[in-house]
Specification:
Number of strands: 33
Shape: globular
Distance between the termini: 18 Å
Mean pLDDT: 95
Radius of gyration: 27 Å
Structural class: alpha+beta
Largest sheet: 9 strands, antiparallel
Helix content: 25-40%
Length: 824
């Protein structure tokens, strides 16, 4: 059994004995018995390109609409000119331990507000809103609204004067439009109007040929003029009844059934090309769908969605709580037993990723694709010092590899635009970016010389390229994106500086994202996170060059510099040091714990290989505490899973599955009634972080083996998961009962050696020839990069990090063969 830390809140919540039944098929629906009163109660639908938040009102249906390329501004980077000399001065000040002066110079060189000739990135903007008004529907009963995440389908049903009214709403994965079907139990009962609004300053709303049309242009911000032109067209198709129009409204009377098709398009083609024709694109989308029957369209939509969604199933059992509405289940989660909500939450994250990131679309931003404002929090752009990466943590291990592709496309773009920031700001080869980007692929400083002086965004993003290769073994993919890996390595070869002790090469200037070590001072050299990131950048390039037989001389040069990076350090409080010097405070509760990047998502810290570092990482997390922003708690679920503490990981899930405050700012985290994550306000990353964390609790493959049920919490003693992916192309099904593995199925899509780690008391029975593991795993996708021996402060009091007793087996697999293991 794993040694676990007990928490009073955990015992209060889960100490009672409650009957749980494992059902054959999970009910994958978010359900409510009243319309949404605000945006945080509305339900998200999306097809990667088009998103909508559906409110489900009886007397007024409200769809807040988004199209992924409606952003403020125009093409162009935001790299400041003539700042290299200042960077050199900052480096000298840091070497002289003049930290406040270094921070002041950084702040002066890169002001908090964007200079007149520059910008700090553009906001993602709403298109506007579509309204369907139903007179006489104010008094309704038997109301239900649902989001079926197994079908990507929103439904509303209610009764007025003995007539049942129904709506089905989805964002079509097949034909790139939003579809709204309205029906009733009595013919001729559909009487309503269709109108729209948009907050954009330059706009026009009118009717034309019995269609409602909205056109507009995105906003201007800082030194950029809004140049995204968009067009939205709503086309109702009636069965019975009459359609009339006024100047800006469509009116429907006496219809039996109505299907409304909403098409949106812009002039955006690429980050440096806005020559598209929104009129032609809107018409093209509509022509495709208007020739299809509704039932055929819905069936095709569901089939395409389920191609991805149904790859993974998770059943954790169900209780009476599952019969309640979703908002009530969230409110009661901390004081009830509702494992089914955990499974729903896991699958909701996968639903959101499929719905906000499809092949050929933009990557999911801070809010996925759902945003109702012109100036949303943090511009709803791409914050790459954690948030964008977290969005894609579930992409590989929850079997949604194709959803990763928009991020790869953006990295490809950034590896081009980032050459400008590398050359102009640092006089370096290759490419880099800082902590933010947007539709226009900016790579310069954002938000000034405190938050923005972090030249590591590209380093973190490129980890996704190498990770995808490890999961898929796709050498053509690796060849395509190899220049981006190489360019990142070249940048750090050129910018690494000798630290004052002349022992190490470090990134300077930089920061440990958004944190400080002195009052208002964050700028420094050689942060632990930076060292870990460069370690991964260099190792990924070395490995990729070997796989592709490219750049041997450069690879040798990178190996030499790799050996000069600082080791990780354990400080005086037995913590993993955040900075090169031992400056951590035990009362620091900052939301970013960036130096734990090496624990997750990287794999540089392993309980079995590095118990001292694991203990230090645990101490760092304990000092910081659990409660924080939604994304921070999502990250913590993954960290505790990597530390093999399933109960603490589950406690974080429980903290996250508490009602979020309705305030629009703060750092209290939680979950809104629509199951979306709160910073607050809404940020989507926490949803993806928790989905990833739940997968990490059940399967890990970063440390040279498949670890089965590494962090199973006491609260989830029975269940099964099917379709998880592991490195090396393995697909895994796991069943467990009474907290013990009962069945394991492994499909090998690439072949090669498979190494399994399981609890010591488990005996496997299989036709496969198992042998005890010795040495390192020979499978090329399971190579572990050796780290330097950590430095330990003389003041550190390490107590030892216990690990569970386990066994490891190897067996050889053949490509596309499946291996089943029963328990003796």
């Amino acid at each position: 059994m794993l040694k676990t830390i007990q928490h009073k809140i955990f015992l209060l919540a889960f100490g009672a004995v409650i009957s749980i039944s494992v059902q054959a098929q999970q009910n994958l629906k978010l359900t409510y018995n009243k319309p949404a009163e605000n945006w945080n109660e509305a339900l998200p639908i999306g097809n990667g390109r088009l998103g909508a938040m559906v409110f489900g009102g009886a007397s007024q249906e409200h769809l807040q609409l988004n199209e992924e390329t409606i952003w403020a501004g125009e093409p162009g980077n935001n790299v400041p000119k003539n700042t290299f000399d200042s960077i050199q001065k900052i480096r000298r000040l840091l070497n002289e331990s003049k930290f406040e002066e270094a921070q002041n110079l950084s702040n002066k060189t890169y002001p908090r507000a964007a200079p007149k000739d520059l910008n700090y990135g553009m906001p993602y903007q709403t298109m506007g809103d579509l309204f369907l008004d139903f007179k006489g529907h104010e008094n309704f009963k038997n109301y239900t609204r649902t989001l079926d995440i197994e079908k990507a389908l929103n439904t509303v049903s209610y009764e007025v004067n003995g007539v049942t009214f129904k709506r089905e709403i989805f964002s079509s994965f097949v034909d790139n439009v939003i579809v709204i079907k309205l029906s009733s139990s009595k013919k001729g009962s559909l009487n309503f109007s269709i109108n729209a609004s948009t907050p954009h300053l330059k706009k026009s709303i009118f009717t034309e040929k019995n269609q409602l049309v909205i056109t507009g242009t995105s906003g201007s911000v800082d030194n950029k003029i809004g140049k995204i032109n968009f067009k939205t067209v709503a086309v109702p198709v009636l069965k019975g009844g009459k359609l009339t129009s006024t100047q800006d409204q469509l009116n429907i009377s006496g219809a039996d059934e109505v299907v409304i098709y909403v098409s949106i398009a812009t002039n955006f083609k690429k980050y440096n090309d806005i020559s598209g024709n929104p009129d032609a694109k809107v018409s093209e989308y509509l022509q495709s769908v208007l020739n299809k029957k509704y039932d055929i369209e819905l069936k095709a939509h569901i089939e395409k969605y389920q191609k991805y969604f149904k790859r993974v199933s998770l059943d954790l059992g169900t209780t009476e709580q599952a019969k309640k509405t979703t908002d009530v289940r969230i409110k009661e989660f901390a004081t009830s037993k509702d494992p089914d909500l955990v499974a729903l939450y896991f699958q909701f994250g996968r639903y959101l990723l499929i719905s906000s990131s499809q092949q050929g679309t933009q990557p999911a931003n801070l809010q996925g694709i759902w945003n109702y404002q012109l100036n949303p929090a943090w511009d709803s752009k791409y914050t790459v010092n954690i948030n964008t990466e977290m969005n894609y943590w579930p992409a590989e291990n929850t079997n949604l590899s194709e959803m990763h592709e928009p991020l790869f496309d953006m990295i490809q773009d950034l590896s081009v635009t980032g050459q400008e920031s590398a050359k102009e700001m640092y006089h370096a080869r290759g490419w880099n970016m800082h902590h933010n980007t947007d539709l226009w692929r900016i790579t310069g400083i954002v938000d000034g010389g405190f938050y923005g002086m972090w030249p590591m965004g590209g380093a973190w993003l490129t980890q996704h390229l190498w990770n995808h290769y490890l999961y898929t073994g796709d050498k053509e993919f690796l060849k395509k994106y190899y220049p981006a890996l190489k360019g990142s390595a070249l940048f750090y070869l050129d910018v690494l500086q000798q630290d004052p002790s002349k022992k190490y090469l470090v990134v300077s200037p930089s920061m440990s994202p958004e944190n400080t070590y002195m009052n208002s001072v964050g700028i420094t050299a050689g942060t632990t996170m930076d060292n870990q990131l460069v370690f991964d950048v260099f190792n990924n390039f070395i490995s990729a060059s070997k796989v592709l037989n490219e750049d041997k001389n450069l690879s040798d040069e990178v190996k030499t510099v790799l050996n000069k990076l600082p080791p990780m350090q354990i400080g005086q409080h037995a913590q993993l040091q955040e900075w090169l010097k031992d400056m951590d405070r035990t009362d620091d509760k900052h939301r970013h714990i960036s130096h734990l990047y090496g624990l997750f998502p990287s794999g540089q810290i392993s309980p079995f290989r590095n118990p001292d570092l694991s203990e230090a990482a645990k101490n760092s997390m304990t000092y910081r505490g659990d409660k924080s922003t939604g994304w921070s708690m999502g990250w913590k679920v993954n960290w505790w899973a990597r530390l093999l503490d399933g109960n603490r990981a589950f406690k974080l899930i429980s903290d996250q599955l508490t009602p979020a405050p309705m305030e629009t700012k703060g750092q209290s985290g939680g979950t809104y009634p629509n199951l979306l994550d709160a910073h607050p306000p809404f940020q989507i990353d926490g949803n993806f972080g928790c989905t990833s964390g739940i997968a990490e609790m059940l399967l890990q493959s970063y440390d040279g083996y498949l670890y089965i049920l590494p962090a199973l919490p006491n609260a989830l003693p029975n269940g099964n998961i099917k379709g998880l992916k592991a490195r090396g192309g393995f697909e895994i099904d796991i069943e467990w009962k009474n907290s013990q593995l009962t069945k394991l199925t492994i499909k090998s899509t690439l072949g090669g050696n498979c190494r399994i780690r399981i609890a010591k008391n488990i005996n496997l029975k299989s036709k496969a020839q198992l042998k005890n593991s010795t040495g390192e795993n020979p499978n090329e996708y399971y190579q572990v990069n050796a780290i330097k021996i950590p430095l330990v402060s003389e003041k550190a009091e390490l107590k030892g990090f216990p690990v569970p007793e386990t066994r490891m087996f190897d067996f050889n697999t053949e490509k596309n063969k499946t291996y089943v293991f029963e328990i003796k």
